[in-house]
Specification:
This protein has 340 residues and is α+β, with helices and mostly antiparallel strands. It is built from 11 helices and 12 strands. Among the domains are: 92 residues, 2-Layer Sandwich (Alpha-Beta Plaits); 50 residues, Arc Repressor Mutant, subunit A (Orthogonal Bundle); 76 residues, Lrp/AsnC effector binding domain/regulation of amino acid metabolism (RAM) domain (Alpha-Beta Plaits, 2-Layer Sandwich). Helices cover 34% and strands 27% of the residues. Helix 2 crosses helix 3, helix 7 packs across helix 8 and helix 8 packs across helix 9.
């Protein structure tokens, strides 16, 4: 499949893109190993990585998948009075359980993803905080039933590597919200301290985490591996997409015939434009996040790629007017800034 990334339209060069691709595969890959794969020095990789962070192009964070802990993920659509929608979005961006806070192009609707770590925190948001907010007119909550997993995560840059280089990279790790282990791991205060630090910096050194938790560095490494294997911990990259050649971000809300739901999701998740797609509850049964170079690109995607799929009976496209918060970063103009 031809990748959708247009290198000429971004401020990044090929080495930058290669480093980003490697981090998507393995967010904590040692710079010495990556330098060996790319035939550059460890210092060069470290310098490029620091520059990407300092320029606000990308941020690596450790994320908690609440599904193996017994909690659902929700996509919320919140309708507001137009004059207060931006203020509502800014307030929601400060909630630690909320991510991907977006003001839609209508100017009166905000979407976000809720990942509550407890039933109490879920109910506090859905049953108390939002209903009591004067600017909130309506809330629709879509529970994520199944996230479809791509063969290669966005931005899909494997074409920049030789086959040998790809073999040397660590296998791409699953971020899908599967059923998890039979017995969810119990998170200790030390675990929580580690997860909080990884949320701020997914590449925090083992020694730094050890100082924060009181563990030894080897114990930190073992526990991090255990939580990753259980599905509780995964690593994510936030990007400042404007600097990467993209100008249109949108959500797609689809109604799909039940018999075709799985086939449509599996097909869509490997489209170059698609960043996220999931089967959900609610008035629509599938939601996707899409990135396009421009509006004509979005039109071609809807009419050609989506139009070729059987089973889609209805589609709503809601372009983003402004994204205020991604997974673990706030967006300031065209820069990502870690949440502290």
């Amino acid at each position: 499949m031809q990748p959708d990334v247009t290198l000429e339209s971004s401020v990044l060069d090929v080495l930058d893109w290669q480093i980003l691709h490697a981090l998507v595969h393995d967010a904590r890959i040692p710079f010495a190993k990556l330098g060996g794969i790319l035939d550059v020095s460890e210092q060069t990789v470290a310098r490029r990585y620091r520059a990407l962070r300092e320029r606000g192009i990308m941020h690596v964070s450790g994320q908690v998948n609440a599904v193996p802990l017994g909690h659902a993920r929700w996509v919320l659509r919140i309708k507001s009075t137009p004059d207060k929608a931006l203020r509502l979005a800014e307030s929601l961006a400060r909630f630690p359980d909320l991510s991907w806070v977006t003001l839609l192009s209508t100017g009166s609707e905000v979407t976000c993803v809720s990942r509550p770590r407890s039933l109490e925190r879920r109910d506090a948001l859905l049953l108390h905080t939002l209903p009591r907010a004067s600017q909130v007119r309506e809330v629709t909550a879509h529970e994520v039933m199944h996230r479809f997993e791509a063969d290669e995560e966005w931005p899909r840059l494997s074409h920049l590597f030789t086959d040998e280089q790809l073999r040397e990279l660590a296998p791409q790790r699953s971020r899908a919200a599967g059923p998890g282990p039979d017995t969810p791991p119990d998170l200790t205060p030390e675990d929580e301290a580690m997860l909080a630090l990884l949320g701020r910096d997914g590449r925090a050194p083992y020694a730094q985490i050890a100082a924060e938790t009181g563990w030894t560095a080897p114990r930190v490494a073992r526990r991090m591996t255990e939580l990753a294997q259980s599905g509780v911990l995964y690593f994510d990259l936030d990007f400042a997409i404007d600097g990467m050649g993209y100008t249109v971000r949108a959500a797609l809300w689809l109604r799909v015939r039940p018999a075709d739901l799985d086939a449509v999701g599996r097909a869509m998740v490997n489209h170059p434009e698609i960043v996220f797609v999931a089967a959900t509850t609610g008035p629509t049964n599938m939601m996707a996040s899409i990135l396009c170079r421009d509006t004509p690109h979005l039109y071609r995607y809807i009419t050609e790629r989506l139009g070729a799929l059987n089973g889609i009976t209805d589609l709503e496209v809601t372009p983003a007017l402004r994204v205020l918060k991604q997974a673990q970063t706030l967006l300031d103009s065209d820069r990502v800034s870690p949440v502290h």
